[in-house]
Sequence to fold (156 residues):
Amino acid sequence: MSINATFFAQMAVFFLLVMFTMKLVWPPIAKALDDRAQKIADGLAAADKAKSELSSANRRVEEELVKSRTETASRLADAERRALSIIEEAKAKAAEEGSKIVAAAKAEAEQQTVKAREALREQVAALAVKGAEQILRKEVNAGVHADLLNRLKTEL
Fold:
């Protein structure tokens, strides 16, 4: 193998090609590869961030659901307590009204009993006067014997 000028010329052309490639071709390719690597890294970081935000949002949603469930349960319990309270108040008012009605009925019955007794006394007094008239065979004057008749009514 002989080294001749062609070999040196090929070496010079190769060296120029390498220099040309390193100066003009390689930097845009390297920049494009670096940009692509940066975009991929940014995309992966954004995906990780989105994943963490999603998990955080899911946690917040679960917390809100738990909070709303407990709040709903609390409101239902309050509503049930209020309903029971209203029912108890209604029962108490009904019992109070019932006792008032019973007391009024008892008072009215007592008044009617007193009136009936008075009417009965009047009738008994009238019968006694009639009986006395018949026994005495003369008329008994009510105005003259008012004290006697009043005493007779109270004794009956």
